[in-house]
């Protein structure tokens, strides 16, 4: 039976996968297939910036994952939204554009990953970026990914001034020479609309005759002949289909789906695979291990005046006005992302770089995607940037439709616990400084009865959640637990690579989307270079 074949197959049209599909198909002689389990990005809420608040919990465009009970979070199961749509999580995230610290990438190189130091990856960040402010030594001005400034606001200015009075320097560019400081975030938007990788990379390429995009296509198994990947099996419209690959198969499903697909295909911890009746192609114990994520804990404050987004969309009339404001001027409540003001600082003076990140958000709600509070509220979310805790992603079944077991092991080490408590105490201190205190009527959460470090830790255990940055489950490296080498090739196998958040040796110090785009850019160059 004839099996259709492509030069390159990319599995997952997410933050890196859309980049790969674009770059690999720029050469018309390369036949490229892009498989995406979710639908096209046709929902208008995807493209309106504040729409992330609706999209992040929408089962039509998300995987709807949930963790196993997490011991460090009082055995709670925690919702883990991931994008299942063209653009992946870049279509549903909070739009914040942060690259991490230069030291993150230099550390990757120190771990034995040649070509992943800051000087080597910086050109790929620049190539991908189309910043409204224009190009400079750190930024690109004409790249596919739109990057824009957040609109200023009185409440945000007050918070910035309070942080400055606390000794934290002002920073107008977290992605420039230095990350440390407080200032306004930048968002992945262009002309007031979300700039996902589906918009920035896939849309300009989708009419190329050598690029085929299949949505609603759930990859179920990588096909092998010996150690070489020869194709992929996937389900679409209730049927199992098979396609072959002539050059390389690239997994770009993210930190959950990529290790899951490898395990389903016989690549992973041998004991786990045999327990599910899966023939072992390659016993790679690190597949699904080394899981890292940023654990966020929110503080909520009621304002003395009606200055929050809660007030701007409270009534139907307010909502109509907000819609008109966005439609006419691309400003107002509908133009906001997952954070207005960012803050990067050190919880201990001996640290060389920031170890915590704050998101100051001009609204408050029951939780991510939850109902806005009926009072005028703001949120300060804190997270540790370089967690020590490590978790895992392991299949629970040989059926690709069964979600894997996700265990992030939050707050598993004393260092992680101490850092999150220090961050929460600092968040409270900043809000009590005069520049901000006049805007705050009361602390709603954690609340006046939570004061000691022990009480703060218990609050973090009970209220903390993911901030949607899972990484490192197919991590790059040279040790026995590494899954891919510095060229992103799966160790011991041929014609198979991984290019997404799962390959990060360690999670970057900040939001992960920009780094995933960089990985897609760099992986594309590697694939094209190695094909010569």
Mean pLDDT, all residues: 97
The name of the CATH superfamily of the largest domain reads FAD/NAD(P)-binding domain
Overall body shape: globular
Q: How many domains in all? A: 2
Beginning-to-end CA distance, first to last residue: 30 Å
Let me know the number of strands: 25
Radius of gyration: 22 Å
Poorly predicted sequence stretches spanning 5 or more consecutive residues: none
- In the CATH hierarchy, what is the architecture of the largest domain at level 2? 3-Layer(bba) Sandwich
CATH class of the largest domain: Alpha Beta
CATH topology of the largest domain: FAD/NAD(P)-binding domain
Enumerate how many helices there are, as a single number.
15
Helix content: 25-40%
Strand residue content: 15-25%
Structural class: alpha/beta
Largest sheet: 7 strands, mixed
Q: Can you characterise this structure?
A:
The protein has helices at 17-24, 44-47, 52-55, 102-110, 118-128, 154-165, 197-205, 254-264, 270-275, 309-312, 316-329, 414-431, 434-437, 453-463, 513-530; strands at 5-11, 32-35, 65-66, 79-80, 129-131, 145-149, 181-184, 186-187, 189-190, 193-194, 211-214, 218-225, 228-236, 239-251, 267-268, 282-283, 295-303, 341-345, 356-361, 377-384, 392-394, 405-407, 440-445, 465-466, 496-498. It is of the alpha/beta class and 532 residues long. The chain has two domains: 1-144 and 188-293 and 392-403 and 469-532, 3-Layer(bba) Sandwich (FAD/NAD(P)-binding domain), CATH 3.50.50.60; 151-184 and 295-384 and 411-463, Cholesterol Oxidase, domain 2. Strands 1, 2, 11, 12, 13, 14 and 25 form a seven-stranded mixed sheet that branches. Helix 1 (17-24) packs parallel to helix 7 (197-205), helix 1 runs parallel beside helix 15 (513-530) and helix 5 (118-128) packs across helix 15. The chain is globular, with a radius of gyration of 22 Å. The mean pLDDT is 97.
